[in-house]
Write a structure and sequence with these properties.
alpha/beta; Arc Repressor Mutant, subunit A; Oxidized Rhodanese, domain 1; 4-stranded parallel β-sheet; 10 helices
């Protein structure tokens, strides 16, 4: 195999991620394995288009699939795929002004205080000095979440404010540093008089850092 052939193999990864919708699907799969139908609903794409994009990612060995009855369940091929996605995201943030503008406008605008780091959250959770909210959709929470976190999808937050304590700080998290669910949750909580901050990144980064993870839907 000559150099050109080798570079062609490297380029397969770039080609697989040449579509923003495939990058979005990879981001979603770093939350946990999902069915084609679930990915279709979350991304807003048709099932057919979702399946086609997933097949392109699978051809590049970035995702795997398994059958569960009549459903096809997709997952990232391994944790290195998510680490690659995080590196791609960080490179884009460092090199592209448009990413910085997005963060400044939509993410940092909600940060009256510094985001909460992993070490701080672990320490405060150990002493029950914080309430942790997972504001992702319930199926993402069920696939994996920070232990002790309460599942409160963003669209349900306003209706569930009465159940949240006002004498303890609330830390919200979602899919990652560019996910808007947690900043919007923090903004709503502060408007209603709660002391709230967001986690510095999201659940995938928490999991890959080797911190404890819980699996399963919250009992209600």
């Amino acid at each position: 195999m000559g150099n050109v052939d080798l570079y062609e193999q490297f380029a397969r990864i770039g080609k697989a991620l040449s579509s923003p919708r495939r990058v979005e699907l990879l981001d979603l799969l770093c939350q946990g394995e999902r069915s084609v139908d679930a990915l279709s609903r979350t991304s807003g794409m048709t099932v057919t288009n979702t399946s086609q994009h997933l097949q392109a990612l699978r051809a590049a060995r970035l995702v795997d699939a398994r059958k569960d009855g009549t459903k096809v369940i997709y997952r990232v091929a391994d944790d290195e795929v998510c680490r690659f996605f995080f590196a791609l995201r960080e490179l884009a943030g460092a090199r592209l002004a448009e990413v910085e503008q997005f963060v400044r406008r939509y993410v940092e605008s909600a940060d009256e205080y510094e985001p909460v780091g992993h070490a701080e959250l672990l320490e405060r959770a150990r002493h029950r000095g914080v309430v942790v909210l997972d504001v992702r959709p319930p199926d993402e929470y069920a696939s994996g979440h920070i232990p002790g976190a309460i599942s409160v999808p963003l669209e349900e937050l306003e209706d569930r404010l009465a159940s949240l304590p006002r004498d303890v700080e609330i830390v919200a998290y979602c899919r990652g540093p560019y996910c808007l669910l947690a900043p919007r949750a923090v903004e709503l909580l502060r408007e209603r008089g709660f002391h709230a901050r967001r986690l510095e990144d999201g659940f995938p980064e928490w999991r890959l850092a080797g911190h404890p993870v819980a699996i399963g839907a919250e009992e209600r």
